[in-house]
Each structure stands twice: as C-alpha cells, then as structure tokens.
Design goal:
With 265 residues, the chain is an all-alpha fold. It has helices at 49-73, 75-98, 104-128, 132-154, 161-184, 200-230, 237-264.
Length: 265
C-alpha cells in the first residue's frame, strides 16, 4: 500500500486493497503504539468526489477569507499576527494529523488560522517587493494545482510505489534542509544560503521545493482516489481537504518566495 508524503493521510484507513482494510492489525505504519487505529463505523454514506470538492472548497474559502481580512488590516498589526498564527497553525496541524477521529472543527480552525498567517506574510511581501506579487503567486499556485490534477487524471504520470518513495524522500530532504538552514541561521548570517538572499542557490532551492510540492499533489490525488474506491465514510473528506490545504499552503509560500527573489534582482 502506498503512503502519501502528506501526513494527514495517515488517518485514512489502510490495508491490502480497496475493499479490505485489515483494521486492528499490528502495523508500524500507524505509529509507535504498534496497533492500527480502530476502524471507524460506517454511520453515513460512502465518500464521494463531491464530498471532497465541497470540503476542500469550504476550507479554501475560509482560508481566503481570513487571509483577505488580515491583509486588509495591514501594517504592524497584521505582521505581528504572522508568528502567533504560524505556531497555532502548526499545533492545529499536528492535532489534525494525530487525532484518530476526524474533527471538522479542527480542520476549519486550521484553515482559518492558516489564512491569518498567509494574509500577514502576503502583506509583508507586498510591502517589501510589490503588491502585484500576491496575485501572481495565487495564479501560479492554482495553475500548478490544475496542471497536476490534469496530469493525474490523464495518467501522464502514474503514481507507482517507486515514484511515491522518491517524492516522500525528496520532501523529507527538503524539510530537513530548511530545518538545518533555520538552525544555522542562529550562528551564521544567512544560514546555509538556501533562503533569503535571492542568490542562485536560494532560487534553485525554491524551484526544487515547488517541483516537490507539485508532485506531492499526485500522491494526494491518488490517496483521495483510493479512499473513494474503498468506500470509507464521507466524513473522511475533511481529512483529504486538510491534506490538500497543507500542500497548497506550502506551494503558495514557495512561489511567493521565488517571485520575490526574481523581482528583487
């Protein structure tokens, strides 16, 4: 069974095939507890593509709404919200990832807080670079999402176990480099040079991250497709919406950063 690099999908039922999930069997993939999460009772109808579209649209609308409000506030007031929103958003993301039962309230809260974070960061970039960069980043993000959806639906790139391992490894490597750069930044100005200065290394790293995020969408689409075919409960659409939002946020920030490098040259 393939696993997505997006950890939100660890909460989806897993097993040997679409119709058989082997609930309750010991498996390391479910964490350190050594036992798979208990199977959710099918209290409602099976998951459908409409459920995923609706929940994803809802979370996206909430994120855009809070982002727009934060952006309009502007100035030091909005900038001061960036760090608190980032911390709260991280906590909510972890809660969504490790909670064994779906919680629409947590997903909605994550979407709202991430909107505040994105609005604050966007206003900062608009002030430091130019306001037009925000729309460019939004269009770029939606363009990549749409392109990867077409690629997945047409089968131009098949999500194989080998490809999945490569994408997961690349994503893990990228986040490790980000962490190393952050820690190094406390001791050396500019860290290891993959962020901030807009040099060739920073531009190359942003392009790499955009490429990885784009391919993560393929894994997300594949996991969503498997969930639909396996007939899991419709409420799992909230997990899928959350997972897609995580990737969208990462992609938007990387495109925004890349555009700032290019326009500062």
């Amino acid at each position: 069974m393939r696993t997505s690099s997006n950890p939100a999908f660890k909460n989806l039922p897993k097993g040997g095939g679409y119709a058989n999930f082997n609930y309750g069997q010991p498996a390391g993939a479910f964490g350190t507890q050594g036992q798979a999460p208990t199977a959710p009772q099918q209290t409602g109808r099976p998951l459908s593509i409409d459920d995923i579209v609706t929940k994803t649209a809802t979370t996206l609308a909430i994120t855009i709404g809070t982002a727009a409000a934060t952006y309009i506030i502007g100035g030091a007031a909005s900038w001061g919200l960036a760090l608190p929103a980032a911390i709260v958003g991280f906590v909510l993301a972890m809660a969504n990832i490790f909670k064994k039962k779906v919680s629409p309230a947590l997903v909605i809260a994550y979407a709202a807080v991430e909107g505040v974070f994105l609005g604050a960061v966007s206003h900062l970039f608009a002030t430091m670079v130019n306001p037009g960069i925000i729309m460019q980043a939004i269009v770029g993000t939606m363009g990549v999402f749409a392109a990867m959806l077409v690629v997945y639906k047409t089968g131009a790139i098949r999500v194989t176990p080998k490809l999945t391992k490569w994408i997961i490894g690349a994503a893990a490597g990228a986040f490790t480099l980000m962490l190393v750069n952050l820690i190094a930044g406390f001791f050396v100005e500019g860290g290891i040079g993959i962020r901030g200065d807009g040099g060739p290394l920073a531009i190359g790293f942003s392009l790499l991250c955009i490429g990885i995020a784009a391919f993560v969408f393929l894994l997300d689409f594949d996991e969503a497709d498997r969930a639909i075919k396996s007939g899991v409960d419709a409420r799992f659409s909230w997990y899928i919406a959350f997972s897609l939002m995580v990737t969208l946020v990462w992609l938007y920030l990387e495109i925004l950063r890349l555009l700032s490098y290019l326009q500062n040259d």
